[in-house]
Structures are given as structure tokens and as C-alpha cells.
Design brief:
This protein is an alpha/beta fold. It has eight helices and six strands, in the order E-E-E-H-E-H-E-H-E-H-H-H-H-H. It is elongated, with a radius of gyration of 18 Å.
């Protein structure tokens, strides 16, 4: 498969399209890329035209200059589909891609069906262990010199947080958004 690049909303975006039939957009999870769907896309391309995209900041796609949230990614999807002149689409979203798909479907109407796989977007009540870690982090943050606060964040942070690099602000914004209020709109 050949990578195709387009400019959407001022960003260089990598995507792949193959197969024929109704359009099916696959939205990947955090810290992955369009290749996370390679095996399933081969099968799906027998009945669909499969569109796989590296969301902004992932894979070979350019990172956004501003701190995107889930609805910014939904707006990106709308502009991407406009660019490709897609009128109707099935959407399959995994993890972060599921949250983007929920936000997209709550705001735009071209999706025919929504398929969520281990979707993000609904904040769960935190476990006792997580609440203790947050309390410890917030307490220690007050006691630690500013010079050591980054090490403290990395110690208490999730693997995604530790590895987010320049996308860290987007990750923080993303995990703090709760889509419960829009789910009845989907």
C-alpha cells in the first residue's frame, strides 16, 4: 500500500484507501497509527472502500499547532471527508478513535453507522488506587521544588503520558473530556 498525503486544515495528513463499495473510515487509538488496522482492513476491503487515516499528530501526519480536543479531531474528520468528497460513511473507531467517532457523530450527519471498539470518551469513576495516586501526586507537587516536578509527573503518569512527548497537552485535554452528554445525540 502506498501512503497518500493531502493537506487538510493546513496539516499534512497521511492516509490510505483501498477496496470498493460503501466507504468505511477507520480511526485508530492513541499512540498508534493507521497501520493498527492493517489486518482487519484487508478483510473489510472486500466489501468496502476502506479509508485509514493517521490522525493529526500520529503516524506520518503532521501534529496540530494548537492543543486539539476530541471535538477538534471530529472537525478534522469532517474536513478530511469533505476533501475526499465522501457523502456517506461507516465509521469504526478504536479507543481514542472511538471518542473522536462519538464526537463526530454527535455533530455531523454523514455517518451511516458507528462501530466502537474499546472506545474512550466516557470517564469512569477512578479506583481507590488511582485516587490515592492523585492525592499523593498533588501533595508531593506542593512539597517538591519546581526543578523536580517533571520527574514527579513522569513517576505518577501513565505510560501514554510518559511517552506523549509534544502531544502531552493533547493527551491531557483528551482524557479529561467526557462525552456522556452527547451520547444520546449519537
Amino acid at each position: 500500500m502506498v501512503n497518500m498525503f493531502v493537506t487538510v486544515d493546513g496539516l499534512q495528513i497521511n492516509y490510505e484507501a483501498y477496496g470498493s463499495g460503501p466507504k468505511l473510515l477507520l480511526l485508530h487509538g492513541w499512540a498508534t497509527n493507521l497501520h493498527s488496522f492493517d489486518k482487519v482492513a484487508q478483510i473489510l476491503s472486500q466489501k468496502f472502500q476502506v479509508l485509514k487515516v493517521d490522525l493529526p499528530g500520529f503516524g506520518l501526519s503532521q501534529a496540530p499547532a494548537k492543543t486539539y480536543g476530541v471535538f477538534d479531531y471530529a472537525d478534522f474528520v469532517e474536513k478530511f471527508l469533505d476533501f475526499l468528497d465522501v457523502k456517506e460513511v461507516f465509521i469504526l473507531g478504536h479507543s481514542m478513535g472511538g471518542a473522536v467517532a462519538i464526537a463526530y457523530c454527535s455533530k455531523y450527519s454523514r455517518a451511516k453507522k458507528l462501530i466502537l471498539e474499546d472506545s474512550a470518551g466516557i470517564r469512569r469513576n477512578k479506583s481507590l488506587t488511582t485516587r490515592i495516586k492523585i492525592y499523593l501526586y498533588r501533595t508531593l507537587k506542593l512539597l517538591v521544588l519546581p526543578l523536580y516536578r517533571e520527574q514527579l509527573k513522569n513517576f505518577f503518569g501513565s505510560p501514554d503520558y510518559k511517552n506523549a512527548g509534544p502531544m502531552r497537552k493533547i493527551l491531557i485535554k483528551f482524557v479529561n473530556e467526557d462525552l456522556r452528554a452527547v451520547l444520546d445525540l449519537v
